[in-house]
User: Fold these one by one.
Assistant:
Number 1:
Amino acid sequence: MITVTDLRKVYRQGEREVIALDGVTLSVPTGSIHGIIGHSGAGKSTLVRCLTLLDRPTSGTVAIGDKELSSVSDAELLNARRSIGMVFQHANLFDSRTTFQNVAFPLELTGTPKAAIAVKVNDLLNLVGLGAFADAYPAQLSGGQKQRVGIARALATDPDVLLCDEPTSALDPKTTDEILDLVKDLRDRLGITVLVITHEMDVVKRICNSVSLLEAGRIVEHGALAEVVARPGGRLSAALLPLPGIMPEELPAGLVLDLLYSGDQAAAPVISDITRRFDVDVNVLAGSVESLGGAQFAHLRILLPVGSDVPAIKAHLSANGIAVTSKEA
Ligand SMILES: Nc1ncnc2c1ncn2[C@@H]1O[C@H](COP(=O)(O)OP(=O)(O)OP(=O)(O)O)[C@@H](O)[C@H]1O
């Protein structure tokens, strides 16, 4: 469990104060994967630096389990940092060290005996699918393989939390999926808590159980994936289940409705139901159906012709658990 409470970080630039984090509070249960998504300048890097104690927060606390990290003395800092394994955008491996030696590095720092290092590193390399690459140098590895080495190295000191900072931003789509699947698999096998900082919604869609939207140093929306998707009008909902922003130029007269629904309804014949029940010709303008957070979701934009019994149709949809918002046609 990682708990961040009212974290603030204010930088001074001469006379000016820059508020990089403005009271961030979040709680990630043990064994779950939480995504923090935000645009450039939102405060993601500052949050990473404060979580890993590379930077002291101006105020607020960071705790892993019941151990508060933000108040440890400088002498205890190195030890406290071991409870968070870091995965970076670029694996940042030592080019002159083999795969084995790169993963062994944090264990050498802690004075682990050689025999124990050998057992641990071989286990970790097998865990990330690199058992056959122990003697390879970084120059002989693909980008995805390097990232696997970085992940194995992050796990070497048995951290409670894996903090992944833009872990796939430098990878192609296929390798991205493989690395994300590996992170999910490691969570399943090790029960580790994972925090993923990213600007890519696809990362959140693929592996996260919950998500926070960071904007100007504040968390402006958060929740379990299934919960935020189902929030009509929410920014995360729009980003997770997007519809084309531009409407067709020549629309027939009528009323445009956006429908958001989940679970059983996502597979239900909603359109044919209202067509039959209210004797209207429904025009589907756009649609998106996805499986998110373990549930099925659908987002549809439809056009009801002039003369439709709009209040009755809306009431019927709402009664069936479908969120309806009217759009200007
Ligand atoms: N050392 C610093 N001194 C002064 N201001 C800083 C410092 N580091 C970050 N900032 C400011 O804090 C705000 C948040 O920056 P941060 O780098 O955390 O955002 P980010 O979401 O990581 O952006 P990016 O994705 O572009 O890296 C920005 O306004 C930035 O200019």
Number 2:
Amino acid sequence: MENSTIMIQMSDIYKSFNNIPVLKGISLEVKKSEVLAVIGPSGSGKSTLLRCLNTLETIDGGSIKIKGEYLAKNSDGKAEYADKKTQKHILGQMCMVFQQFNLFPHMTVLENLLEAPLHVKNMKKNEILPVAEELLRKTGLFDKRDAYPSRLSGGQQQRVAIARALCMSPDIMLFDEPTSALDPELTVGVLNTMRQLAEEQMTMIVVTHEMGFARDAASNVIFMADGNIIEKAKPHDFFSNPQEERTKSFLKNMLK
Ligand SMILES: Nc1ncnc2c1ncn2[C@@H]1O[C@H](COP(=O)(O)OP(=O)(O)OP(=O)(O)O)[C@@H](O)[C@H]1O
């Protein structure tokens, strides 16, 4: 159940690629422990929205606040980013999981988990090892700890990617279509791991085409089309009684 602390606040976000607007004044808020599902047609700007949150893309206008701290501030209609130190501090609180798992192929599963805590956070191995092992147990991957990623199924690799992100103890997890590259039978394990995280009160934004997950694991759903948020609602209302025509026709196609 979400509480009232605002973890993410995006206000009036604009982003263009080659003068073509992709985000057209997006505003949203995510509260602590909220699971926000972002759905919408291909090209509507969902991935760009997430990528702007973790600075893989920069915004042109608007502001982004994470846990009350400005990552980017609106200044005369333009976005002005915080200094590098502040950015690093803010970004250290968020981890992102991608469609392609992006594991280090030359490292074992365990080494993948330990890499960032050891070399980004400068933690000691005896501090982080028990955390990593516990995460591997939780995601059902403990017996794979010494395997290389190429030996794992896509679903297992994605669960490693999630465990690796969690090893950084983030307050916020961003998921960009985490099951889209997986065969349907492999999505279940990944979605179950995400459901478990949601039950443990992790604050999450999940860009997904998995309507089942959005319906029963999300606390709120937004529908994006053409760079705008068209509709935002609680999952039950969103799926049983969408208000906007574009949402209705999207859902009709997706739930066919
Ligand atoms: N780096 C880039 N350079 C140029 N155009 C881009 C870039 N990244 C995204 N776009 C364009 O921005 C628009 C939105 O893309 P985005 O990936 O955010 O959509 P999406 O809703 O996540 O789509 P999908 O569901 O297919 O992943 C698309 O028209 C895309 O071609």
